[in-house]
What we know:
By secondary structure, the protein is an alpha/beta fold. It is built from 14 helices and 13 strands. The strands form four sheets. A seven-stranded mixed β-sheet has the order 2-10-9-8-7-3-4. Helix 5 crosses helix 6 (133-141), helix 11 (291-301) crosses helix 12 and helix 13 (356-366) packs across helix 14. The longest helix has 31 residues, at 303-333. The radius of gyration is 21 Å and the shape is globular. Residues 36, 104-106, 132, 180, 185, 213, 215, 245, 247, 258 line the site of pyridoxal-5'-phosphate.
Amino acid sequence: MSLFDRVELAPADPILGLTEAFVADPRPEKVNLGVGVYLDENGKLPLLDCVRDAESRLAADPKPKGYLGIDGSPAYRDAVRSLVFGDGADVLADGRVATVQTLGGTGALKVGADLLRQINPSATVLISNPSWENHRALFTRAGFRVDSYRYYEPALHGIDIDGMLADLRSADAGTVVVLHACCHNPTGYDLTPEQWDQVIETVRDRELMPFLDMAYQGFGFGIEEDGAVVARFIESGLEFFLSTSFSKSFSLYGERVGSLSVVSESADAARRVLSQLKICIRTNYSNPPTHGAALVTAVLTDGALRRGWEQELAAMRDRIKQLRRGLVGALEARGVTDMGFIAGQLGMFSYSGLTKQQMIALRTDYGIYGTDAGRMCVAALNTGNLGYVADAIAAVRS
Ligand code: PLP
């Protein structure tokens, strides 16, 4: 008799499980459109030049590997805060923001969820329908009841803003609302500035707690344009949580570099919040790793490296847009004329509108892996596989 006899075998992670199936697939023409990772024209994960240069500089001046503080590197935190709130923003000067370095965007969400659970344990968490799979799992695991608000409307190939606002309006005060700041995962549909204003007004009226998740800054319209939603929340005077990630924008997936900022009403509240965030971190993993944050800090604070990063990020963004247009064109050439909406979606993902059966057929008949819900990572297409993918979609649609 072992204690572990009672341990049930958990199902594979839905997205990472797809990758396992992809790796095991022997067909050379297979395409993995499952995970949210940007691949270059050769189907390879890029190492950005700015990161390579920053890495060379760090290697040329090696440092001892001491512990960082619980809340991470001060230089990194300053760099992130300038990036997301703006250099010298009043909210920073007023001391109203508590920022901690986290293990990617996921780590930021979890630290934020743990703090929220401590300060408002009976709150419900609302996520968009649909949302990134891990939102529900992570907030549930943190002890919350998780429900959803209406978001994607298949018939519109867009957002059901009236449904979303109605669901927010009927939420209890204190409800945590997880909002994708830009490049909504999985649909690729973002709120317009006017719709953000409506959401902010509703959040204020209903006294909800917004949790902005910004994992794709720079992949929509640009670094500033995508970050504008943060400025909107600051302007509104609301308190809110903000998680950010450099996994995608720096192609630093495995380095686990992110941040959590909590914007409070006063500097005193921010100090108390920071003290509690530090306890959440200390009792989980003590303090974050050094290397990835040092790379991001080096790039963000050096004029030439920063310009290089902005150009490389713009190139990734523009190439994804080109791939979207390329896919739409290739589909049209094969007689599929009703999928033009893919070109207008934002970020790495496309909600293709394909059914579960069609997605399964893509997988089993063609070795093309997307989620059952029809999500495809457009950022994993290239000129070599685009025609094959278009052939396969046209075939499963016929
Ligand atoms: N939030 C959303 C919406 C995401 O899509 C992702 C990653 O796919 C994350 C957060 C987590 O990012 P990270 O890999 O930095 O933990």
